[in-house]
Amino acid sequence: MSNPSFLSTAHGTKVAYHRSQGTSPGVVFLGGFMSDMEGGKALELEAYCRRTGRAFVRFDYQGHGQSSGVFADGTIGLWLKDALSVIDELTQGPQILVGSSMGGWIALLAAKARRARVKGLVGIAAAPDFTVRHWAELSDTDRDTILKTGKLEVYSDYGPDPYIFTRALFEDGWAHRVNNRPIHLDIPVRLIQGTCDPDVPWQTAMSIADNLTGDDTEVILVPGGDHRLSEPYDLKRLVRVVNNVAKDIS
Fold it and tell me: Which one from 36, 197, 199, 234 is the annotated catalytic residue?
């Protein structure tokens, strides 16, 4: 793992990133909740972009990986600001946003905020509005814990550290809902989704596609696919999809 560069943002985050110069459209990878830029999907896309001479950026949100801040202080709105700063300061020309899980939510928000720059979007188990669904699935006891203490720690199969869900995260997530109404984007969108994803139901990809108003949206269902979609054949599929979107834009 090489040392990252850092971008100091106007809103206070010191964003850790790796950037490869190259041709456009460039590719920006947006990771998931409590993930970082050192995962298999980010590195596979970086290798693809270097082989083809395409510009690429991967980065960590505030409180993730090697960026500044505490994870529990983060919200969708803050992480969106991190992503927009990366797009504005570290990229040039048209971009393809590739968002994994929560990164798919942030990618949709960023695409709407930077219509002149974002010309393609690929979601991998995209999870827009996941905080709304998660709140609805919590027990009354867990909801009371969040309302009284401001946070809830939940252990998962993805690592030893607990996932921290804060009251601010849920409230901010509600304010940043995107999949509860038409999503006005007229760009190529590809949604890769496993049918056996335990965290994001495959129907989520279908609802995103239904809400998108553009005429170039495809849902790619992976039979038996899990949430991470990080097996070698998954990574090959991801590269193929991103490469085809780049060709369409070019």
Answer: 197
